[in-house]
Amino acid sequence: MRMRKKSWAEPFLMENDHFVIQEPQNNSGHWKEVLKCDTLHVEIGCGKGDYFIQMSTMDPSVGWIGIEKDRNVAAVAAKKALEVTTSNRCMIALDAEQIDSWFKEGEIDTIHLNFSDPWPKSGYKKRRLSHGNFLNKYKTLLKDHGQIVMKTDNQGLFEFSLVEFSQNGWLLEDVSVDFRRNEHPEDAISEYEAKFMSLGQPIYRAIFVCKK
Ligand SMILES: C[S@@+](CC[C@H](N)C(=O)[O-])C[C@H]1O[C@@H](n2cnc3c(N)ncnc32)[C@H](O)[C@@H]1O
Question: Which molecular-function annotation in GO is an example for this chain (predicted)?
């Protein structure tokens, strides 16, 4: 997601450090206490925050963390999230490359990859959030039988991801090549997803289970 630099973004992120956690490694092993929850979901690449904000509003007993590396985009998400005060969500405005230093082994219940950047050129495939290098980090951080829920409009990214998960020992629990053919009120629709749906594009979705 590209966005022009916003002069207010950086000061806003720093002023709201109770919500945008500046040193996430300090919370490693304590996220559930911080968010007052028993279940922890993490969205990596949350963009403007539509998905994790809606999902954390639907069920306040579940904790949600939105991770976004673009600090201008993260500031937009944080501003939106802070319109409603709730203790079950927060953000990390950093590159998920470092995710393994922010959480303790087995601390996360579910990771969401919602409409991740496809990085279509092969030379950039290591940047895809479903590349094997990322999957190995996620495996450590997820609990045994924890899940990754992936949704995308991009067929190429979906096919790549199915192979990566399979080659790295993940179990495929569920798959759909037209997820929105049926109603799914339990699953939020981000602005991004709505745009693809309005164009009539199928939404691909898969759930992978982490087996340690
Ligand atoms: C296409 S947007 C998806 C937004 C959102 N998930 C949604 O469903 O509306 C993908 C976002 O992932 C972010 N991103 C990509 N790689 C990342 C990384 N390594 N760490 C954190 N964020 C990342 C991008 O900056 C971009 O804002």
Answer: tRNA (guanine(46)-N7)-methyltransferase activity
pLDDT averaged per 10 residues in sequence order, the chain, 212 residues: 86 97 98 97 98 97 98 98 95 98 98 97 96 98 97 98 97 98 97 95 97 80
Question: Considering the entire predicted model, what is its pTM?
Answer: 0.97
Number of domains present in the structure of the chain: 1
Q: What is the spatial distance between Cα 194 and Cα 180, in angstroms, rounded to a whole number?
A: 10
pLDDT of residue 206: 98
CATH label of the domain that carries residue 75: 3.40.50.150
CA atoms of 163 and 158, how far apart (whole Å): 9
Residues in a beta bridge with 171: 209
- Asked whether residue 121 is marked as a ligand-binding residue, the answer is yes
Which of 48, 101, 119, 129, when mutated, tests ligand 1's pocket best, judged by the most ligand atoms within 8 Å of its CB? 129
| pLDDT for position 3 | 80
Q: Which of 52, 62, 54, 64 is nearest to 89 (CA)?
A: 64
Residue 182 resides in a domain: yes
Please name the residue that has the structure tokens 């990390």. 92
What is the rounded CA–CA span in Å between residue 173 and residue 171?
A: 6
Is residue 11 one of the residues assigned to a domain?
Answer: no
- Is residue 10 assigned to a domain? no
